[in-house]
């Protein structure tokens, strides 16, 4: 079964049950539209209204709100929605997450930008700024790579940070610390040296319980961009299928930069989340590449894949297996925004918390930006620097990155 340009009234062509309501996409969009309208009108007020439904999963909300006429079945219709509009298993998670995700990524007027030559240039730009300031005597910056923090301790109003360097334990003392690590990483740290109180209990609970999604990517190399040729060329965009690879993402950068279609190219042959991603976890990179290549033969034809695939060049990643992330991104369960979000982000023991998991916008970079602005505000206000903050917050780009949590 592959989603394509099929008449909505002929769902059996896609392999769906006859019990699926043919207008399933329309009623799904309508179910979220009331939240989109509120967020458009006043984001903060719309978010407060959305939070009233925080105890709902996507499934529980749709089960209650979707209007599916007889003889069609509500559960079959929701299953079709999850398959085509989401990832397997995500409908058991927070409705708030699904609404915010749809509000962000399903808006037709949204404009997206990329960073030329890769996202690594973004953090590298900060490093260059630090080095410039240090050379001019404006700052004392020490950036340490490949150092594994394993303990935080609070003594005499200072934060002690412990890490491993070439297997040797080291530590340093700071007035304040900002923790931006994913919670799966923080979960492994020794935090017993922090103050023991109700705040500590709820923060430890948040670190332990806040849900992270799973995600996997598999990249394949081809001799040509065969998908941009033929009677139905694909330039950019993605394909969705219920095959194991689930989503294929076709790069537009080659076309945008006038690179000939006959040149070699990298295809994101599979981008998966949740239960779909988990199915790639047990296998080697080579095995995952072979699985995706076989799936692509079903989508695009055996001959064109076999003629163009560069067998020896491939790559895959499953983020829960990466020790620097221990998960792909935050994606909370029902009730977790209301009960655990605030204890998570509240400063404690001169330690501040940032990262996409501490903002309402999960799974992409703007949540990290928002959290950075929030932490700057926290530190400046706690340090009696409110006049400086009031001046700073009116300047670009901070006013566009205002944190909502």
TrEMBL record:
Domain Amine oxidase residue range list: 84-380
UniProt-listed InterPro entries: Amino_oxidase (IPR002937), FAD/NAD-bd_sf (IPR036188), Flavin_monoamine_oxidase (IPR050281)
Any single GO BP term: amino acid catabolic process
Entry GO MF terms: L-amino-acid oxidase activity
Domain of life of the organism encoding this protein: Eukaryota
Protein's name according to its UniProt entry: Amine oxidase
Naturally occurring in which organism (per UniProt): Gigaspora margarita
Lineage: Eukaryota, Fungi, Fungi incertae sedis, Mucoromycota, Glomeromycotina
